Amino acid sequence: MTDRIEAAAAELRPLLQDFILWARENAPGSDSNLVGSVALWHRLIASDDVGRWRRSDLRTVLLDRMPQVVEDPDAAADGMMPAVRAYLTFLSDSGRLAKGSSPLRDLLAELDRLEDDFVDAMEELAAEDEDDDEYDEEEPEGLGDFEPFAEELAELPTIRLRPDSELAEAARRAPLIIKARDLAVWVGTERRVGETSLLTDAEIAEALGVLGLSAPAGTEPPAADSVPALWNIWNLAIDLDFLQPEGEDTVSVDPDAAEWPFEEDDDALDAWLAGLHSVDYGDPELEDEEATIALSGLTRALLIRVLLATGSKPLAELRTELAEAAAEYDDLGTEAWAAAAARYGDPLNPVLDWLAGYGMVEVEHDQVRLTPLGMEGVVHLVDDADIELDARPAIDAMTALDLLTFSAELPEEEADAEFAAWLELRSPEQAARDLLEAAAEDDSDALVRVQAASMVGSLGEVAVPAWRAALGEPSLHPYAATHLAQLGVEDAPQPTQADTHWLILDMLTISAGLGRPEFVSSLDDIGTDLVGLLDVIWKVPHPHLEELLEAIGKAHPDKQVTKAAKRALFKARSGHN
C-alpha cells in the first residue's frame, strides 16, 4: 500500500502545484494541505481518474475517510469545505473536471449539504483528541507504545517493501481473514446480536463449528464470555467491513464479504490494511481483568522488537525482553506474565498465533521473522504513531516511474545510489528507454521529466537510441535534442529556441512548487533579459505556461517584468482560445 500511496501522490503533485498557483488569485485562503489529503484519498478509494468527481464521492471521502486520516480536526473543521470548493472550482475552470463527473453546481450543492455533518465529525475528533491528550498526560508508557523506540527506528537501515501485487497475494492467504469471511457469511442478514442480545448458546456452538474452533472445556454449551477467540474473529470481521450494523442490535453480512479473496490487488490489500489494528487481539486474555490490562500491547511490543532486529529475532530473546518489559511497565506485569504462562504455556503463543494467522510473522527453528506483509504492516503502524522511518520500495520491484518519483524527494547522493542499484538489474539501454517512457506518461510533471533527463544523461552514448525515440514526445523533445547535440550525434536535430524555452519553463515549474522565494530566485537566475523572454515565451505550448506567467506577474518585484508577464499571459490565453 505504501508504494500505491506514493504513486498516487506523485500523480497528483503536478495538478496540486497548478491548483496552488491558481488559488493565489482565485481562492487565496485555501489550504493546499487539506486539498492534497482530499485529492489523494479520492484517487485511492473513489476514482482512478483524479479529475472525475461524482456527488457520492464527496460523502465517501469527506465523511467516511477524512475522520480516519485527518491530522488536525480543528483546522479541517474551519478550512476543509472552502478548500474543497476552491479545488472543484479550479478543476472546472481549468477544464480538468473529467467526463463522467457531476456538474460543478451539483458538487457544490452536495458540499453544502455535507458541511454540518463534516464539521460535527471534526468537532467530535477534536474532543476525542483532547480526551486522549489528558489520558496521555496521566498514563505512563505501555508495552505497546512505539515512541520510546523512535530514535532506534530512525537509525534503522532502509527498509525495502515489496510491491502491492505480492502483498495482496499474501493477504489473500491470511487464514484469519478467511475465518472472518466464513463467520460473516454464517451471520447472514439481520441476525440479532448486540450489547443487550449476544448470540445464544446454540448459535455460539454453531459459529465455533464454522470457524473450526473447539468449545472451551467444562462449558456445555459454551457461554458467550468463554469464547474470546470467537469474538476476536467477530471483531475482525467488523474491522474488515465484512459485518455491518443493521439497526439496533442487528448485524448483517456485507454483500462483498463472500467475494473474498478479492480479485483486484488494491481491494485485497485495502481490506487487509483495514483490519491491521486487529494485531491487538493477539494480546493474552486472562481471567483477571487487571492482569489482562497489564499485558495489553504485548503484540505490538513484539512487532517493534522484531523490526528493530531488522526483521528477525530469536524467540527466546523476545520472551526474555518482553517479560522484563511487562514487569517494568506495570506493577502487575510479573504476575500477569506468570498467569499467561499458566494459561497458554507461553505468554507469546496467542501473540504469535494471531500474527501468523494475519500473515505477518513466521516462526521457524525458534526464530520469529516478519513476512513481507508483516513488514508492510509494521511500517504502517509506526507511521500511524507519527514516527519517522526510512521505508522504500524494493529495488527489484521498482518501476522506472517509481524510481523517478521517489528519487526526486531524496538527497542527491541517495538518489544516485538508488539509481545505481536499480541500474544493476537491467541493461543501460533498457534503463534509458524505461525512464524516458515513464517521463512521457504525464507531460505536466516537470520534476519527473527533469529527473529522468538527468539519469538518462548520465548513461552517455548507450542512451542515444532512447533519446532518438524521445524526439517524438513533445515534452521530451527539448531534452532529447539537447542531449543528442551534446553527444555529437551528427544527424540529430539541433535544439531550437522553443526547446530552450521549454526547459526554462520546466525549471520555473519546479521552483514555483518550492515557494515564492525560490521562484523569484529562479527568475533572477535567467538574467537581465527576462522581459525579452516573456515577449516570446508565451508561444510555447507548455502545460504550466499560463499559471507560471500569472505567478510571475504577482511575485516579481520589478514592475516592468510584471507588466510583461501580464501581456504574455493575455497573449497566451488569446492564442489558446
Any chance you could write out the topology, listing elements then pairs?
Blueprint: H1 2-26, H2 32-45, H3 55-69, H4 73-93, H5 104-138, H6 150-154, E1 159-161, H7 164-172, H8 175-187, E2 191-192, H9 201-211, H10 228-239, E3 243-245, E4 250-253, H11 265-274, H12 289-294, H13 298-308, E5 312-314, H14 315-329, H15 333-344, H16 349-357, E6 361-364, E7 367-370, H17 372-384, E8 391-393, H18 400-407, H19 412-423, H20 428-439, H21 446-457, H22 464-470, H23 477-486, H24 497-512, H25 516-526, H26 530-537, H27 545-555, H28 559-576
Helix pairs in contact: 1-2, 1-4, 1-18, 1-27, 2-3, 2-4, 3-5, 4-5, 7-11, 8-10, 14-15, 18-21, 20-21, 20-22, 21-24, 22-23, 23-24, 24-25, 26-28, 27-28
Coiled coil: 104-131
Keywords: Coiled coil
What is the count of β-strands?
Answer: 8
Biggest pleated-sheet summary? 3 strands, antiparallel
Low-confidence stretches: 135-139
* Average of pLDDT: 90
In terms of structural class, how would the helical and strand content be classed? mainly alpha
- As a percent range, the share of strand residues is under 5%
Cα-to-Cα separation, first versus last residue: 42 Å
Helix content: 55-70%
The spatial strand order of the largest sheet comes to: 2-4-3
- Supply Rg: 28 Å
- Number of helices, counting only DSSP H or I runs of 4 residues or more: 28
What is the overall shape?
globular
Keywords: Coiled coil
